[in-house]
Amino acid sequence: MVNSNQRVNVINVLIIACGIVYVASWLAPGLVEQFLFYPALGFTEPWRFLTAAFLHGGIVHLASNMAFLYILGELARRVMSNYQILLIYLLSAWGGSLGTLVWTLITGQQQAVVGASGAVLGLCAGVFVYTRNLHASSSALGGLLIINLLIGFVIPNVSWQGHLGGALIGAIIGWALHLVAVISGRRGRKKLGQALPDVVDRQRATTTVKRTQIIGNLLVTVLSVVLLLAATLGCYI
Question: Does the entry feature the keyword Aminoacyl-tRNA synthetase, yes or no (predicted)?
């Protein structure tokens, strides 16, 4: 488990960033057009895959997404580091845009997308998979995930494609981070090496766990970015 008293609360940083962008887009409406995700523009303006997750169509849209993110963040920070949370959030945002792009290729229907829903649902799915595999209580989290995925199919003008894409990527990354946690834990236990380990043994085990987690997180990051990039380019080529 991760100490929730981390110096920087990445959830608050994300919420503040979305709030600032919303105010900026209200003062300069052209900002939305420049940074929303539109499949036809994704190849020449790739930043849209991520920036769309910081834009919102109105105060209710913003408030609902940020409320969900705040509640979810309280759980996420108990089990994950700021880096892991940010990794899942940003790559799930990318995955949400990718889901919209894939649907466009299938149907030929272009649609502009804004909102943090894909990223938030990706984080929800990632934390669900991570905590479920660690045998933590996550039934309520699973219920929230299912409800929010279903909303996309019921409420008009909600991108279920973005929700599904974000949730899928978040779940995959959550699973990969779970593997990192399992491997680092096993390596740490091996370093103890005796029934009653002394202080030095415990320090070595802790160092081994931390080093393995850092290397594992970096590998998950690189592999995830490479695979998402390959999938994205494959849609355009």
Answer: no
For tokens 């990527």, name the residue: 169
pLDDT tens digits along 70-93: 999 888 998 899 999 999 999 999
Question: Annotated catalytic, 159?
Answer: no
Per-residue model confidence as pLDDT tens digits over 48-64? 999 999 999 899 999 99
Q: pTM, whole model, 2 decimals?
A: 0.90
Which member of 138, 163, 184, 224 is catalytic?
163
> Which one from 117, 138, 159, 184 is the annotated catalytic residue?
117
Cβ contacts of residue 36 below 8 Å, gap of 6+? 48, 51, 52, 55, 112, 113, 114
